[in-house]
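Quick start: read one record
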Amino acid sequence: MLSLRHAITRSVLIYRHFFTNFADSVRGYRRQRWASFTMMIQKDSMTMKRSGLWSGACLVGLIGLALGGCSSGSSSSGGNSAIQLQIGTTVGRSVFPAGSTRAGGTGQTVDNVGCDGGSEAYHIHAHLSLIVNGEQIAIPKGIGIPDGTAVGTSISGGSCIYALHTHDETGIVHVEAASPAQYTLGQLFDIWGEPLTSSTVATYTGTVTAYVDGSVFQGDIRNIVLTSRGQITLVIGNIPSTIPNYAFPSGF
């Protein structure tokens, strides 16, 4: 009986010693992680502040990583979720009147782009966004469709139709031609009849920053090529924290 009691007591002491050492090891590991984390903060805080990354959310996230206590919940991967485009809707605030201006395409050839029946042998779609000081401005419907007819919230028909045109205010640019060709943003604006330079977009002026598929475009923005499902964003003034990313309607 005494031997059994002695064995049990000895086992309890052994397990207690084991778990005490284990807990000390865990605390030591966390102290080491915290020390490393503190050194990282001291080293990189100025860089993070300059890059605009220093925030309470970042601090909480870093502390969680340092202590090994992060959950597996959802988090931002640095990108932004695609916004589904709906045909016939308006993306942004409506400012411009429908159709091309008098300075744009009214049926004549504009910037080597003719106005005909709108052959669809070559048919792709691109998207154009305009953001002015943080506010998105809608691209007008009916660009490149002279004398177009309103069909609900869209414009169709017309006396002719240019290879580059818009039917609604979603920002979707239709490219329809008899054969594949390289069309540019500058040609679209010429058909619209509005200026496009490094300091002017239609009626808005200021420093223009252009993005193509989320990346800053270097060069003459008039030369940006309209590609299938390509996304072009023109920003004047304050640069938004995220550049909009759109999902095209089915079949586009």
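Residues 159 and 211 are 34 Å apart (CA to CA).
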